[in-house]
Amino acid sequence: MGRVSGFLEEVRASYDTVAEAYAERVPAPGALDPLSRGVLGAFVEEMAGAGGTVLDVGCGPGKVAGYLAAGGVRVVGLDLSARMVGIARRAQPEVPFVVGSMTALGVRAGALAGVLAYYSTHHTPPEHLPAVYAEFRRVLAPGGRLMLAGYVGADGDGGGGEGERLRHTEAYGGLPVSYESHYVPPERIVRLLEAAGLTVTARLVQEVESAKGAKRRVGTFLAVRPPAGTSPRAG
Ligand SMILES: C[S@@+](CC[C@H](N)C(=O)[O-])C[C@H]1O[C@@H](n2cnc3c(N)ncnc32)[C@H](O)[C@@H]1O
């Protein structure tokens, strides 16, 4: 992949720095809380049944991609960080992994049965989310499914606000990073997905506590690219 700029360069460089530490700390999907594991398991079951390829966008060290592959899903992992991709390739030699960005996937239109973005879109500034969601829709085949999970913001403004924005300078045991996290309200995520031409079929918001006792909200959204013959709302 060529040079990237702005927030993408910050995220790429930061995840290159923390890649090994992140891979050691992040739990494998089998160790997730039962609800998260259940929803991910349902996606795996659906995608294994549907056939076709699922792209794990922002795959990090590849643990989730490995879980999909073990469940019978044909999966390809993609990440901005070449170090993450290197770790993923060593950990899951049976799964293909590529370096790339969710802002321009380099995948043929309609080529995929599924897209999974697992805790990977919260570094994308909200003003760039419409382009990312449009890219997810573009690469999905009609009837293809998206699962999006990650940190979200508070409800209450009808989805109009952009949510909280935090700049991080260290992570994963004090390693230096420089990126922002954006906690977008769930209603806004739903609105943007629908505006991109996807039909949101399920949403789940969980209040969780981090290992250090911090309260966080996580959201999971399931969506489908409308099957051929139906008229999408956009694009
Ligand atoms: C918190 S980690 C999650 C990794 C993995 N999905 C997991 O659940 O363990 C976020 C990952 O998203 C990747 N990422 C962030 N923005 C990206 C982008 N624009 N395109 C591709 N990957 C991105 C980062 O490099 C990082 O590996």
List the helices and strands and how they pair.
Elements: H1 6-25, H2 34-50, E1 53-57, H3 63-70, E2 74-79, H4 82-91, E3 97-99, E4 112-118, H5 129-139, E5 140-151, E6 164-171, E7 175-183, H6 186-195, E8 199-209, E9 215-224
Parallel strand pairs: 1-2, 1-4, 2-3, 4-5
Antiparallel strand pairs: 5-9, 6-7, 8-9
Helix pairs in contact: 1-4
Q: In terms of per-residue confidence, which ranges show pLDDT below 50 for 5 or more consecutive residues?
A: none
**Content of β-strand:** 25-35%
CATH class: Alpha Beta
Under CATH, the topology is which? Rossmann fold
Helix-strand makeup class: alpha/beta
Terminal Cα span: 27 Å
Strands of the biggest beta sheet: in what spatial order? 3-2-1-4-5-9-8
Number of helices: 6
What's a concise summary of this model?
This protein has 6 helices and 9 strands; from the N terminus they run ααβαβαββαβββαββ. With 235 residues, it is α/β, with parallel strands linked by helices.
How would you describe the overall organization of this protein?
Helix content is 32%, strand content 30%. The model has no long low-confidence stretch (mean pLDDT 93). It has a single domain (6-224), classed as Rossmann fold (3-Layer(aba) Sandwich), CATH 3.40.50.150. The strands form 2 sheets. The chain has a 7-stranded mixed β-sheet, sandwiched between helices. It has 235 residues and is an alpha/beta fold. The longest helix has 20 residues, at 6-25. The chain has helices at residues 6-25, 34-50, 63-70, 82-91, 129-139, 186-195; strands spanning 53-57, 74-79, 97-99, 112-118, 140-151, 164-171, 175-183, 199-209, 215-224. The chain starts with 5 loop residues before the first helix and ends in an 11-residue tail after the last strand. It is globular and about 50 Å long. Bound molecules: S-adenosylmethionine (SAM).
